[in-house]
Design a protein that fits this description.
This protein has five helices and twelve strands. With 187 residues, the chain is of the alpha+beta class.
Length: 187
């Protein structure tokens, strides 16, 4: 997390959390979802405005984390902005290396580490369980992913997509906790 973000958290510790204002799609693109977009429909059917500003994307990527319940967020200074995920908390790119190996990197630029399980969902999407968690392989990298499957002996197993969040402990659409009911004052 950026030092400026840590300082802002200390200065303003009680800023309310934000929900539904930021989305991460299956290609690893971030989307801003203003109130009008949210009223038009849920993510990813209605995505919002794709973030194209490189410094803003880098800032989001550096400050992207998960809470104790597996809900992913972007720490925007003192405000935690929860992220609606299209498929998984990580979107993975796979690049072939000159030595015959493969590099697997997240949409945030982080190396994913070892692959422990491979899954194909009912839509034919490839998911990799890695040292840092579950990620969806970007569609643009599927040709290289096939080479990695063959070269590394991965055996993708069939899986129902809706079982992955619970299996890997992440939340697709974080929601604000319910406010406690107010009781009438005693008379």
């Amino acid at each position: 997390m950026d030092e400026i973000v840590k300082a802002a958290l200390k200065k303003w510790p009680n800023v309310p959390y934000s929900y539904d204002w930021l989305g991460l799609d299956a290609r690893g693109d971030w989307y801003l979802r203003d109130a009008q977009t949210q009223q038009a429909g849920t993510f990813p059917q209605v995505k919002g405005s794709r973030i194209v500003h490189d410094k803003l994307k880098d800032f989001i990527c550096r400050n992207y984390e998960a809470d104790e319940q597996g809900a992913w967020f972007f720490q925007n200074g003192p405000q935690r902005v929860y992220v609606v995920l299209e498929a998984a908390p990580w979107v993975l790119g796979i690049q072939a290396q000159g030595d015959g190996g493969f590099r697997i990197e997240t949409h945030t630029g982080r190396e994913a580490g070892q692959v422990t399980d491979t899954w194909l969902d009912e839509q034919g999407r490839l998911f990799l369980a890695t040292d840092i968690g579950l990620g969806l392989v970007r569609s643009l990298d599927m040709a290289v992913a096939v080479d990695a499957i063959e070269a590394l002996g991965w055996t993708p197993q069939d899986v129902a997509f809706d079982t992955l969040p619970q299996r890997y402990g992440y939340v697709l659409r974080p929601v604000a906790p319910a406010k406690p009911a107010q009781t009438a004052p005693a008379t």
